[in-house]
Write a structure and sequence with these properties.
The structure is a homodimer. By secondary structure, chain A is of the alpha/beta class. The first copy, chain A, is 41% helix and 16% strand. In chain A, the strands form 2 sheets. A 7-stranded mixed beta sheet of chain A has the order 5-6-4-3-7-8-9. In chain A, strands 1-2 form a two-stranded antiparallel sheet. The first copy, chain A, binds a DNA duplex through residues 10-12, 14-17, 20, 27-30, 52-54, 62-66, 68-69, 71-72, 77-84.
Chain lengths: 227, 227
DNA sequence: TAGATTGTTAATCGATTAACAATC
DNA sequence: TAGATTGTTAATCGATTAACAATC
C-alpha cells in the first residue's frame, strides 16, 4: 500500500507523518507534555471548570498552538471562544497515559535512594502505590521503611502473581543494575525507571527511562558556564 | 545583515542553522549526548587509546553519523581509518561542558532525598563536590550527613564568598521551592537542578533542569500500557 | 594496496509556531 | 453582534541518518 500521494496527503506533510496519524500514534514530544498539562488540571480541578490553551501552555512551558495540536492528537476537542473542560481533559489525559487506575510500583534496592523514594509521599498522591521494596542485604531484609517491609530480592521470582506491579524503579548500585533489570524483564515487567548510573539493555518490548544525576549536572554545567 | 543567500549557504540549510554555526552554538541534542560519550570515555581511559564513532554511538544510544556530526560541532577531529583519541576527546568534552575543574554543589533541603543525594558517592566520582547542605529545621541543623554538617538556610545570604558553589540542587518540599530558588538566584547561582515537583520561575540567565519522579512514571506508563 | 573509519552532503523526519478562518 | 478562543494550515526549524568521497 502506498501512503503518499493519497487523497488526504499534502506536500507539506511527510509520508511518515501521515502514517503515524493513520495508526493514531502520539508524538513523543506530546507524550512528555501530557503529565505537565495533567498537573495543572489537577491543581485547577477545584477552582475552575474551563481552561484555555494559553494557560496550559504557560504551565507546560510550551506554545498555545502546540497545546491545541497536542490535544487534537488525543481527539479531544474544546469549545471555540470558551476553552477546554478541566474535568474531561483531566480524565482523557489520565486514560491516554494508562493511569486511569492506580498503578503499582516496586522499588529495587533499599539504599539511601531506594528508601528516600519509598518514603516519598508524592507518588501516592499521583496515583502510584509502592507495593514492594527489595534488597539483597540480609541486615536490611525484614526491616520496615514507612509501612513497607524490605524483602529479599530472591522472592521476586516467585512473587509474580501475589505481589504484582506494573512499574519497577531501579535504585541499585551500578554493578547490579543489569542483572536486576534482567530479572525484572523475566518477571514480565515492561516499564523500568532506572536511577542507576548505567544504561541497561532490555528487549524492545520493555521501556526504560533513565534518571542520571551526574549527567543532569553536566548538562546544567554547560549552560551555566556560558552565561 | 542578511544571513541567507550568502556564499556559504545552501538550499538544504535553514538560515537559522547557518547563524548558529557562525556563533558556534552547539545544538541542545548534542549537549545532552556529550555526558554519555564522556561516560564511555572514562570507562575506556585505562584500556584503549582510540575509539570509533560506532562505539560512541552504541554507548549513547545514537547513530554513528550523529556522533561524528556532534564531534564536528566541537571542532574535534579524529583520524580517518583509525578513530578518535580517547584521552583528547575526554578532555575536550570536559572543557566544553565546563567541568574541566571540579564543581561545587550545594544541596537545599535535608529531607530523605537531600540526605540520600548528599550521601551519593557517584557525584564526587564525576567531579562534583557537595560543599553544603541546608535546611530550615532546627532539629536537623548542626547534625551531620556523611562529612557534611547541615546548616541553617538563613546562612545562605551571608555565605556568598566563604561557601560559594556553582550548582544548587533543590530538594525541598514543593511549597518552598520557589522561595528557595529566589534566594539562590539572589545569591548569584546560575544552575539549579530541581527535584521539587513544581516548576520554578527564574530569570533567563539562570538554567534549571527539573527531575520529576511522578511525571517520569506517567510517561513510562504510557509506553508500558501500549505494548 | 586493501580495509577501516572519518567528515560532509543531501534528504528526510519530527516538532514548533505564526496566522487565520471557524465558531462559540 | 463583538470578543474570545479553538482547530488547522503552511512554513520553518532543529535533528537524524544513509551514503559516499576522502584519507589514514
Amino acid at each position: 500500500m502506498r501512503l503518499d500521494s493519497g487523497a488526504g496527503s499534502r506536500d507539506s506533510k511527510h509520508a511518515a507523518q501521515v502514517y503515524r496519524e493513520l495508526v493514531n500514534e502520539i508524538p513523543k514530544a506530546t507524550v512528555v507534555r501530557l503529565p505537565r498539562y495533567l498537573r495543572l488540571l489537577e491543581d485547577l480541578a477545584l477552582s475552575k471548570d474551563v481552561v484555555s490553551s494559553e494557560e496550559l501552555a504557560a504551565a507546560a512551558g510550551a506554545n498555545a498552538a502546540n497545546v491545541r495540536r497536542d490535544l487534537s492528537h488525543l481527539d479531544f476537542h474544546g469549545v471555540r471562544g470558551i476553552g477546554y473542560s478541566v474535568a474531561e481533559l483531566k480524565a482523557r489525559i489520565r486514560q491516554e497515559l494508562g493511569i486511569a487506575e492506580r498503578q503499582r510500583v516496586a522499588i529495587l534496592g533499599a539504599g539511601n535512594l531506594g528508601r528516600a523514594l519509598a518514603n516519598y509521599g508524592g507518588l501516592s498522591r499521583r496515583g502510584f502505590d509502592v507495593v514492594a521494596l527489595y534488597d539483597t542485604d540480609v541486615r536490611k531484609i525484614g526491616s520496615k521503611v514507612g509501612s513497607i517491609t524490605i524483602q529479599d530480592l530472591d522472592l521476586l521470582d516467585g512473587d509474580c502473581t501475589s505481589k504484582s506491579f506494573e512499574i519497577a524503579i531501579l535504585a541499585v548500585p551500578a554493578v547490579a543494575a543489569q542483572q536486576v533489570a534482567d530479572r525484572l524483564v523475566e518477571h514480565g515487567i515492561r516499564s523500568i525507571l532506572n536511577f542507576a548510573p548505567v544504561r541497561v539493555n532490555v528487549p524492545e518490548k520493555v521501556s526504560v527511562r533513565q534518571v542520571d544525576l551526574s549527567m543532569e549536572l553536566q548538562v546544567l554545567s554547560y549552560y551555566g558556564s556560558r552565561l
